[in-house]
Amino acid sequence: MSQPASPLPDRGPTGRRTAKGSLSSTAGKRVERPAPLRQVVYEALAELIINRTLEPGQHLVEADLAEYLGVSRQPVREALQRLQSEGWVDLRPAQGAFVHLPTDEEADQLLSVRSVLETHSAKLAAGRATAADVKRLWELQNTGVKALADEDTEGLVAANAALHAFITQLSGNAVLAELIGLVDRRVRWYYTPIARPRGHDAWNEHDELIHAISDQDADAAEQIMSRHTEKTRQAYHERPDAPRH
Hints:
The chain has helices at 20-23, 37-50, 62-69, 73-85, 104-126, 131-149, 153-171, 174-191, 199-214, 218-237; strands at 59-60, 89-92, 96-99. By secondary structure, the protein is mostly helical. Mean pLDDT is 88; it is low at 1-7.
């Protein structure tokens, strides 16, 4: 029996890959209510970009996205406008919307800021963590190690974000937490393609970091986190699909 044709085209007007291969291979992600529809659609599209179901450079067709999400085109159009204003999407005259293709300079700017913030966060966390907090850190660590063993990229990214978020929480600095929260989504976007290649090293570094926090060694926690975030930055530039000059 022949399969019904997918509503998502393979290529857009510029010849770039569109959402067909990404979205048509999965069940439609019908959005839920009663949250404001435009907000739900925005969150859904942002997550599809962050987890790279929609890849950098992909053509985004309003009608296809609307059908996939089970909504009209209007909230999709509003979401794409917002995503464009936040740097996730590029709107090109006469061509349409495309997932933003980050430059090396953009990656360096974000990951260097993340390094400064999280290094300070780790230092503060080492001075405040209780035995119960350390136990929770090990639980998060074990979740990440299991995802690594299962070759679960999505689980790895989620576990990495959860561990770093908890360290931020332990810092006790609300301003720091707010600033880190502003870059968290984009960090996850950059981290996704290197989560598995960097996996063993990254989670070994997390192990060292938790030991330093457990020992209340603020200087060691600061140094370990600094090295950890710098290695992540380097790994992003050395990833297999990175542009070669």
